[in-house]
């Protein structure tokens, strides 16, 4: 199970914010695991800098129960 990487947040990550800085030609896409609360904040931070970003839903790991 991934944990949200926002400071002092221990919630389970539900999405990956996949981002890349186009100013660095060698940079590969990076993933930031995030809970639903913090994903919009990080997405705003990345897009404000004109970096490419997308949200990718995390699939529950095998053995985990999806309670949606």
Topology (elements, then pairings):
Blueprint: E1 15-20, E2 30-34, H1 39-48, E3 52-57
Antiparallel strand pairs: 1-2, 1-3
Q: Ranges with pLDDT <50 over ≥5 residues?
A: none
Mean pLDDT: 86
Strands, count: 3
Distance between the termini: 16 Å
Q: Give the strand content.
A: 25-35%
Largest sheet: 3 strands, antiparallel
Q: Report the radius of gyration as a whole number of Å.
A: 13 Å
Helical percent range?
Answer: 10-25%
Please list the strands of the largest sheet in the order they lie side by side. Answer: 2-1-3
* Structural class by secondary-structure content: alpha+beta
Described by the principal axes of the CA atoms, the overall outline is globular
Protein name: Acetone carboxylase
Main features:
single chain; 68 residues; alpha+beta; three-stranded antiparallel sheet; 3 strands; globular; Acetone carboxylase
Compact summary:
With 68 residues, this protein is α+β, with helices and mostly antiparallel strands. 15% of the residues are buried. It is built from one helix and three strands, in the order ββαβ.
Description of the molecule:
It comes from Buchananella hordeovulneris. This is Acetone carboxylase. The protein has 68 residues and is α+β, with helices and mostly antiparallel strands. The protein has a domain at 15-57. The chain has one helix spanning 39-48; strands at 15-20, 30-34, 52-57. The chain has a three-stranded antiparallel sheet, covered by helices on one side. The two termini are 16 Å apart. The relative contact order is 0.28. The model has no long low-confidence stretch (mean pLDDT 86).
């Amino acid at each position: 199970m991934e944990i949200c990487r926002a400071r002092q947040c221990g919630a389970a990550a539900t999405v990956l914010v996949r981002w890349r800085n186009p100013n660095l030609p060698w940079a590969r896409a990076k993933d930031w695991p995030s809970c639903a609360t913090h994903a919009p904040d990080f997405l705003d931070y990345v897009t404000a800098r004109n970096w490419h970003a997308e949200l990718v839903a995390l699939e529950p790991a095998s053995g985990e129960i999806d309670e949606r």
